[in-house]
């Protein structure tokens, strides 16, 4: 099987994730888009590791998963706090930090 | 020049080696009076008087010490301390006690002490009398430092000191803005002269590597005419500023804003003669620079004419006397520029002038004292009846300045006129005639002043004026000065004593015959003086003087405005200076500030626009990040492909 298809899949997943982040307002959904992009990147890493026949890509993928887990904790906590104070999970409502 | 000039002996004996006491005593008086504050108000003025007399006493001791030695041994250097030691340049502060400086010391301390005594009564009702005496003492100390210094740099310290004292005393009543302005004017005009003086000192240092009198005079002969001419002209600029000589004469008239004793001491008898002292002291420099000498003579001739013309038109008694001072110092300058022989007569006239002019100024102060401080001579008239002592002392001063034999002025001024007629070519005629005609005009304006004040047809007193004689503390100094006006010239002139006394300093020069016989000159002078007095008698004694000044001729109106000296200064220097500063301020505000401020405004404005990009919408940031990444990747790919 041509391994380039895995790359196409990664691109597709990344595009879906990016579109989700750009288009959706709900912070949880945006967050899911971010996770999707991270996993698309992981898929690309693993695929390239496979193509090149070494394990650096796999190692990086493991790191990304680890950091993503930590990031989820912090991100969800922020979203939760914003929701508690502003009664809204919309990313467009959290626009106080501006000019 | 004799070879001995410029050789100074080291000081010996208690009197000579402690000559610094002369300066220290009045300086101490000034310090005590200034620092002591109000608690000294009761007796502070007597301390000032005491310090001044103490300085005179020490000066007299020095004089008798010198008198006991032979002529060539009368120059002593008193080493004080190492002042400046900078690499190859070192300078010791020291005093030079020689016949010339002692002549000045005696004049300054004696006339100064008399004026101190006079001021005790004159300033009696002034709440700041203690401060006044502090300044007077400061002046005496600075003036003594000026004449006793053994180097040009130390002389310059005294030079600035008297300038400071003059400034403080002109503006003594500084609550009157006009007086404060007059003080500033005197200070600023003096600064112009001081620049010349400072440049002269620098030029000396370049030419001789030293600024002491001994080194400069020793090197003068070998220095060459060009260098000496430059130094001589620069010194002349300094002398013009201090002595109110043309073209730096404009401050003296306004300086009359100070209390009258100040006008008598500083602006008549002593400080304004410092320029003459400088020229005479620098005689070895001028002897080697005929062009600079000629410049001194020309300045003197111009100023003596200028002052005489201005003096004829002034109705303010003090300003008329100030114009007269300017004119008489013009005589001294003229004489000083004529070389060693003339210089001796310049000092002679300076001494006699110090007495009779100070006496007349004190007389004017006495008149003001009796006339509610009025200075307008048109409100005086026939005061001789009520102020007999003042009148008598003024009479002697008047006779002295006129040059009537045997009074002081005759001996000194007549010699100057004779010396001005010595020489060949056009010079004796121009300068001699200027001096001769100046004497006639002097006779006219001094008689005008005298007649308008003390004589005349009618009394023009203001209704509230009750003229009375001044107290004894004021009249006694006036009487002493009047006696000096009467007999000093006789004492020093008949035997030519002063010329012999000064010979070790100035050097000996053969006496030359004037272009006209001396009896003719003397006769012409006396006839012209008599004519001047007669004219004044006809106009101001025989006819009544109008209370308001008549319009007068064009020359009178010009002379009333000091021959437009202020207008010229304003038009030539002040206005262009103001325009220059205004232009510079404009360039600074619009040009420099404009460029800097404009750049800042540009950056600020740009920032103001650009910050609108920060909308606070997270998704728009994400969109721009994505777009940026896509563009970057696209670019990388485009380059690779």
From TrEMBL, chain A:
One of its GO terms (biological process) is ATP synthesis coupled electron transport. Coiled coil: none annotated. Its EC number is 7.1.1.-. Keywords: Cell membrane, Membrane, NAD, Oxidoreductase, Quinone, Translocase, Transmembrane, Transmembrane helix, Transport. InterPro entries: NADH_UbQ_OxRdtase_chain4L/K, NUOK/Mnh_C1-like. One of its GO terms (cellular component) is plasma membrane. It is a multi-pass membrane protein. It catalyses: a quinone + NADH + 5 H(+)(in) = a quinol + NAD(+) + 4 H(+)(out). Its main location: membrane. It is found in: Cell membrane; Membrane. It is an enzyme of class 7 (translocase). The chain crosses the membrane at residues 6-23, 28-48, 60-83. One of its GO terms (molecular function) is NADH dehydrogenase (quinone) (non-electrogenic) activity. It holds the Pfam family Oxidored_q2. Belongs to the complex I subunit 4L family. NDH-1 shuttles electrons from NADH, via FMN and iron-sulfur (Fe-S) centers, to quinones in the respiratory chain. The immediate electron acceptor for the enzyme in this species is believed to be a menaquinone. Couples the redox reaction to proton translocation (for every two electrons transferred, four hydrogen ions are translocated across the cytoplasmic membrane), and thus conserves the redox energy in a proton gradient. NDH-1 is composed of 14 different subunits. Subunits NuoA, H, J, K, L, M, N constitute the membrane sector of the complex. This is NADH-quinone oxidoreductase subunit K. It comes from Kineosporia babensis. The gene is nuoK.
From TrEMBL, chain B:
Residues 149-432 form the NADH:quinone oxidoreductase/Mrp antiporter transmembrane domain. Gene3D superfamilies: 1.20.5.2700. Its main location: membrane. Pfam families: Proton_antipo_M, Proton_antipo_N. One of its GO terms (cellular component) is endomembrane system. Keywords: Membrane, Transmembrane, Transmembrane helix. The chain crosses the membrane at residues 19-36, 43-64, 100-120, 132-149, 155-174, 195-218, 260-280, 292-313, 389-409, 429-451, 472-495, 515-537, 618-639. It comes from the Bacteria. Residues 83-133 form the NADH-Ubiquinone oxidoreductase (complex I) chain 5 N-terminal domain. It is found in: Endomembrane system; Membrane. GO terms for biological process: ATP synthesis coupled electron transport; electron transport coupled proton transport. InterPro entries: NADHpl_OxRdtase_5_subgr, ND/Mrp_TM, NU5C-like, Proton_antipo_N. The keyword Plastid does not apply. It is a multi-pass membrane protein. PANTHER family: NADH-UBIQUINONE OXIDOREDUCTASE CHAIN 5. This is NADH-quinone oxidoreductase subunit L. It comes from Kineosporia babensis. The gene is nuoL.
